[in-house]
Amino acid sequence: MKRKWLGVTTSLILAITLVITGCGSSNGEQSANGGEAADQKQVDLTMLSSWSTDTERGRALETIVEKFNEENVNKIKVTVDINPDWPTLQQKVKTMIAAGQTPDLFNYNFNPNDLSRQESGRLLDLNPHMDEEWKTRFTEQDLQAMTVNGELTSIPFEKAGILFYYNKELFAKAGIVSFPATWDEFFEACEKLKAAGITPISLMTTDDAWHTTNAFTYLAASIAGTDVFDPGQSLDTPEVVKAAGYLKQLFEYTTPDALGGNYSVSSNNFLIGSTAMIIDGPWLIGSITEEMIPSIGIASSPTFGDGKVQPGFTVTDAYTPWSAAKQSSKEKEEAVVQFLKFMTNEESSKTFTLNGRILLSMKLDLTEEETAGAGPVLGQYIQTNSEAPESIVNIVRILKPAASSKLPSLIEGLMFDRYTPEQFAKELQAANQ
């Protein structure tokens, strides 16, 4: 009897000891991790990106992710999954969304004619998290552009401005002291350059007619406002017709090889000093020779001075925003938002811009020293781009595929008088339906 009692007692003591030992282990873990480990597990986030670390932008992203992870050790960890093949990565994301396996974080090229991601119901709506401090990082126009069916499922991020490069030495030879502020002044400057034996501007008509469609987009927006090409709006309007007329006039001031010329031909004409102006993005900067750098100026577009657009507005390449998966875990949702806020704050934006050479949607206030440190041309570019009060995406990036493909031939038809400006607008609208 006594032996049995002792056995029970021994078992009971052992059980109590195990419980106490378990509690002690848990308390020890809490103590080692600031009292949070038992209550809060680390949130792991995977970010899909094409920015490999052998590129400037990839190294900038790596720097920012590492800093975020250091500041949130044992709480949140972001891991970047890199696929440098951008088109393949975008298709992979669409497939994952369709399969209900939406990546925690990913970026993509926004096209208002392809809203399959936004309309999937599987992206996180960031509106409830958009406090005033975060909201002031972006323009209202960019936030509205990313809002679909009332939900903000993408954060504006990369938006490369397309600006006016000009050769200051050639301007000086023609007696032009500053870049024109109005389109009337612009065409007057073209006349002065032409009279001085200088071809005013580089244009092209093949491939996507990039430099020419930049000019056309600037003209149309200057006439009608930055919503001129918004989805659902007709392209057969008096404003588009008027812009086509100005574009035809602009071809009087370009090189003979613009008709049938591609990007390489058009950009080379500017880079060797054969033309005084070109309208392009930041990627042109790497092709400018050391000898030519002191001669290069960067400017925003002229306007018609009638208030249709704000001075300093820009045409841009396609938006490349970041999106996130809708989360079932509140902790994971909050972690996603915390990282997105970190990635778009002032300090991170400077890292992306100055080190990664990425032109961003976020507002950026650079010191003169920071701007100068970026180099004479890129510094001008960053400053001009960051001051833009509003923008419009180049028309070839937002048309439906059939219209986008047809636009270069329509431009050539306009130049060869096969189309009047009125016919040009009708044909473009028909192709975009």
Structure description:
The strands form three sheets. Strands 7, 8, 9, 10, 11 and 13 form a six-stranded mixed β-sheet that branches. Strands 2-1-3-12-6 form a five-stranded mixed β-sheet, with helices on both faces. A two-stranded antiparallel sheet has the order 4-5. The protein has helices at 2-32, 56-71, 86-98, 132-135, 140-145, 168-173, 183-195, 210-224, 238-250, 263-271, 330-343, 346-355, 368-373, 376-386, 401-415, 421-431, and strands spanning 43-49, 76-82, 105-107, 147-148, 151-152, 155-158, 161-167, 199-201, 275-280, 296-299, 314-316, 320-324, 391-393. It has 433 residues and is of the alpha/beta class. β4 (147-148) and β5 (151-152) form a beta hairpin. Mean pLDDT is 89; it is low at 1-38.
Any low-confidence stretches, pLDDT <50, length ≥5?
1-38
Task: Bin the helical content.
Answer: 40-55%
* Global geometry: globular
Largest sheet: 6 strands, mixed
- Look at the structure and give the mean pLDDT: 89
Q: What percent strand?
A: 5-15%
C-alpha Rg (nearest Å): 28 Å
How far is it from the N-terminal to the C-terminal residue, by CA?
95 Å
> Tally of extended strands?
13
Number of distinct helices = 16
- Give the H and E element order: HEHEHEHHEEEEHHEHHHEEEEHHHHEHH
Oligomeric status: single chain
Q: Structural class, from helix and strand content?
A: alpha/beta
